[in-house]
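We were asked to recover a plausible sequence for a given structure. The inputs and outputs are reproduced exactly as logged, with field labels preserved.

PROBLEM: sequence recovery
POSITIONS: 256
GIVEN STRUCTURE:
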């Protein structure tokens, strides 16, 4: 099977690249934003013109939650219009689309974890742009997997795990909020889940949730990181007071 991976230089794209060699039956074409700009229909048409793909894993996304509040048009250009372009190309070429979405499509008011059947209600521009992308996929094609993931981290890119590790090198006390609860998810595990989905005998199209399954606050996650790396004796974690962000964040974004 031939598989196109967009956004290949992002965190998840690099995790997919790392394990791609373990799947002999899959042939990958990894394209970063320079090689394939999903906001440009000409770029997309060119990518799909000369090779027939069986699957497209769309890892391309605008993920700067704070900046999305200030320049929502940029977030929507990638996460909504760009996804519409990809979905259209997949529909026209009979390609199965695997798209990565987010826990931020929910408002965080539910006390329990969110199910795939729960009604989305994003409270920030990033979440709204991602939900708009989901809607375009559902309108355009029937052959899709929308995978909502949460709090991704890995050895690649910019993420909470790497931020804590870097701060632990120079700071003795880290101030971390406990006002948000979610499920930290190793992007390497998500990459394996996606490729196992492709190689499974039969899976129903639709919306899926994937996390590593353990709900915690950012404060708890920081403590866990320091404990697992044996830095908890050198660095302390304290709860941040008066935690503020420009973008509203869901208080509970646990997805199950």
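RECOVERED SEQUENCE:
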């Amino acid at each position: 099977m031939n598989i196109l991976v967009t956004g290949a230089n992002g965190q998840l794209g690099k995790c997919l690249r790392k394990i791609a060699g373990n799947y002999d039956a899959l042939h990958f074409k990894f394209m970063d934003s320079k090689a394939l700009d999903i906001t440009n229909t000409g770029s997309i048409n060119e990518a799909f013109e000369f090779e027939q793909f069986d699957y497209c894993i769309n890892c391309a996304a605008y993920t700067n939650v704070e900046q999305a509040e200030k320049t929502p048009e940029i977030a929507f250009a990638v996460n909504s219009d760009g996804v519409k372009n990809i979905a259209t190309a997949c529909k026209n070429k009979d390609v199965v689309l695997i798209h990565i979405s987010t826990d931020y499509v929910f408002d965080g008011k539910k006390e329990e974890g969110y199910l795939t059947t729960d009604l989305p209600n994003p409270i920030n521009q990033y979440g709204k742009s991602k939900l708009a992308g989901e809607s375009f996929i559902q309108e355009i094609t029937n052959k899709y997997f929308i995978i909502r993931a949460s709090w991704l981290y890995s050895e690649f890119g910019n993420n909470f795990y790497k931020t804590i590790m870097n701060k632990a090198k120079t700071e003795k006390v880290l101030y971390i909020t406990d006002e948000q609860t979610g499920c930290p998810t190793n992007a390497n595990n998500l990459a394996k889940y996606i490729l196992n989905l492709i190689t499974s005998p039969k899976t129903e199209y639709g919306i899926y949730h994937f996390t590593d399954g353990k709900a915690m606050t950012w404060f708890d996650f920081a403590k866990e990181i320091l404990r697992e790396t044996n830095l908890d004796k050198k660095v302390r974690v304290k709860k941040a007071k008066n935690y503020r962000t420009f973008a509203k964040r869901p208080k509970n974004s646990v997805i199950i």
